[in-house]
Specification:
The protein has two domains: 168 residues, Medium-chain alcohol dehydrogenases, catalytic domain (Quinone Oxidoreductase, Chain A, domain 1, Alpha-Beta Complex), CATH 3.90.180; 127 residues, Rossmann fold. The protein has nine helices and 15 strands. The protein is globular, with a radius of gyration of 20 Å. The relative contact order is 0.16.
Length: 314
C-alpha cells in the first residue's frame, strides 16, 4: 500500500508500506476519502523527521477489503466510516467496533463520520431546547457544522460570530438568523441591558483561539451554558471568571469515550441520510494523496472559498 507521512515541518512524502493485516477485532478498508483535520495541523507544521515520520489522517471512509473475523458482522465490500488513525493511506486497519455503514447514494467525502460525530456528541450535552437563544462563535468547518446541527434544534435565535465575512455569509445560508463580526455584536447581546435578557442561553465556541473564549463568555446569559468545542491543544486557555459570577454551566465538547462518539456518529449518519445535515456546502476542496500539504496550507491561509479539504482516492 501507499501512505503519506510527515518527514519534516510542513513536508510530507508518500512511501510504500506493507498492507495491514486485521486482527480478529479489526477490518481493513481501502480508503475512499479522508478528511484533513485542524487537530493535525500542529504535528504537520512542527513535527516529523525522515527517521521518525508522523502519520496523520483520522476521518476515513472506505470499502472493506479484509475482515479479521469472517464470522463477524462485517463483510468484504461494505462501505464504512469510523474512528482511526493513519488515514492518509490507500489502506488502513480500523477497530470493528468503531465503524458504521454509510448511507447509500452519497460521495465518500460527504459521509465522513468522525467530525460529525464529535459535533453531534458535544451539542447533545449542551441541551439546546426549542426557542433557546443560541450563538456559535467561530465559523470554520466545525463552526459551520455546528450551525447546521443547532438549527435542527429549532432555536428561537441562532447567532453566528466570526471576523470572516465569507464565513458569516455561509452561516446565514446554513440556518443562522443573524451573523456578526465579534467586534460588532449588539450591546444587548454581551451585557445586561436593564430590559428583557438578550444574552444567549447556549454559546458554542469552535475556534481553538483564546480571544474567542472572551467573546463566548460575554455572550452567555446568567445560568446559561457554554460548550467549548474548539481545539485548545497548546498552552493555557484562561477562564473568564465572569462565567463563575454568572453561574454558567461549562461543557467540555471533547468526548474521550469511543462508544459515546460512535453513538453520536450513528445519529449523524442518520441526519445525512434524511437531509438534516449535509457536507456538500462544507467540503470545498478535494486533493490527491500527493497534495495533502497543500490542503494544510489552505487551512492556514483560509481563503474566502475554503472551508474544508478532503483527500479523495480514485
Amino acid at each position: 500500500m501507499l501512505i503519506s507521512q510527515v518527514v519534516g515541518p510542513r513536508r510530507s512524502e508518500i512511501v510504500e508500506a506493507p498492507d495491514p493485516i486485521p486482527t480478529p477485532s479489526q477490518v481493513v478498508i481501502d480508503v475512499l476519502a479522508c478528511g484533513v483535520c485542524t487537530s493535525d495541523r500542529t504535528p504537520w507544521r512542527e513535527h516529523g523527521t525522515p527517521e521518525k515520520p508522523v502519520r496523520l489522517g483520522h476521518e476515513t471512509v472506505g470499502r472493506i477489503s479484509a475482515v479479521g473475523d469472517p464470522a463477524g458482522r462485517w463483510q468484504v465490500g461494505e462501505v464504512v466510516t469510523g474512528l482511526g488513525g493513519d488515514g492518509f493511506a490507500t489502506r488502513v486497519a480500523l477497530d470493528a467496533d468503531s465503524i458504521l455503514r454509510v448511507p447509500a447514494g452519497f460521495a465518500p467525502q460527504h459521509v465522513i463520520g468522525e467530525p460529525l460525530a464529535d459535533l453531534e456528541e458535544a451539542l447533545s450535552r449542551s441541551r439546546i431546547r426549542p426557542g433557546d437563544r443560541v450563538a456559535v462563535v467561530g465559523l470554520g468547518f466545525m463552526g459551520l457544522g455546528l450551525v447546521q446541527l443547532a438549527a435542527t434544534r429549532l432555536p428561537g435565535l441562532l447567532v453566528a460570530v466570526d471576523p470572516n465575512p465569507a464565513a458569516r455569509a455561509r452561516a446565514l445560508a446554513l440556518g443562522a438568523h443573524e451573523a456578526y463580526h465579534p467586534d460588532d455584536l449588539p450591546g444587548e447581546f454581551v451585557s445586561s441591558s436593564g430590559r428583557r435578557e438578550q444574552r444567549m442561553d447556549v454559546v458554542v465556541e469552535a475556534t481553538g483561539v483564546t480571544a474567542a473564549l472572551r467573546t463566548t463568555s460575554s455572550l452567555v446569559r446568567p445560568y446559561g451554558t457554554v460548550c467549548i468545542v474548539g481545539y485548545h491543544h497548546a498552552g493555557d486557555a484562561p477562564m473568564d471568571m465572569e462565567l463563575w459570577y454568572k453561574g454558567a454551566t461549562l461543557v467540555n465538547g471533547f468526548s474521550p469515550e469511543r462508544p459515546r462518539t460512535v453513538r453520536a456518529m450513528r445519529e449523524g449518519l442518520a441526519m445525512i441520510a434524511d437531509g438534516r445535515f449535509s457536507y456538500l456546502p462544507l467540503i470545498t476542496h478535494t486533493f490527491a494523496l500527493e497534495d495533502v500539504d497543500r490542503a494544510y496550507e489552505l487551512m492556514e491561509e483560509r481563503p474566502a472559498d475554503f472551508v474544508k479539504g478532503v483527500v479523495v482516492f480514485s
